Amino acid sequence: MGRQTLKARLSAKLAEYFELPSDVVLNLPRLVLTGDQQLVVENHRGLKLYTRTEVCLQTTIGLLTVSGEELNIKLITADQVEIDGRITRVEWKAGGEEQCSPNA
């Protein structure tokens, strides 16, 4: 784990020094939220849960949970997801392979 942390810190410093986008260099997810109506997530690692009130995605830094009403996945590709609906919450669960739990 220490070696991965050192590699991540070194990559971050190189990205900063060369003024490169950190989301590309560090393989980080990129989120674009438009009001409470649309969320575009780039660089995801898979869909874990999809209901009308919750969407859960695996990312390189943990689980991303999007909560709301009438959520709909408009587009899903190997590295991008576009979610429409009334988004009320975007939450990170840092770490490894936690479980997504659907809202009751």
What can you tell me about this protein's structure?
By secondary structure, the chain is α+β, with helices and mostly antiparallel strands. It has a domain at 28-94: Immunoglobulin-like (Sandwich), CATH 2.60.40. Helix content is 19%, strand content 49%. The protein contains 2 helices and 6 strands. The protein has helices at 2-17, 22-25, and strands at 30-34, 38-42, 46-50, 54-59, 62-76, 80-94. A hairpin with a 3-residue loop joins strand 5 and strand 6. The radius of gyration is 15 Å and the shape is elongated. The chain starts with a helix and ends in a 10-residue tail after the last strand. The model has no long low-confidence stretch (mean pLDDT 84).
In brief, what are we looking at here?
The protein has 104 residues and is α+β, with helices and mostly antiparallel strands. The chain has helices at residues 2-17, 22-25; strands at 30-34, 38-42, 46-50, 54-59, 62-76, 80-94.
Descriptive terms for the model:
YabP_sf, Immunoglobulin-like, 2 helices, Sporulation protein YqfC, 6 strands, six-stranded antiparallel β-sheet, 104 residues, Spore_YqfC, alpha+beta
Largest sheet: 6 strands, antiparallel
Q: Which stretches are poorly predicted, pLDDT < 50 over at least 5 residues?
A: none
From the N-terminal CA to the C-terminal CA, the straight-line distance is 36 Å
Q: Tell me which CATH architecture of the domain at 28-94 applies here.
A: Sandwich
Under the CATH scheme, which class of the domain at 28-94? Mainly Beta
Helix content: 10-25%
Q: What value does the average pLDDT take?
A: 84
SSE run? HHEEEEEE
What overall geometry do the principal axes of the alpha carbons give?
elongated
Strand proportion, as a percent range, falls in: over 45%
Structural class by helix and strand composition:
alpha+beta
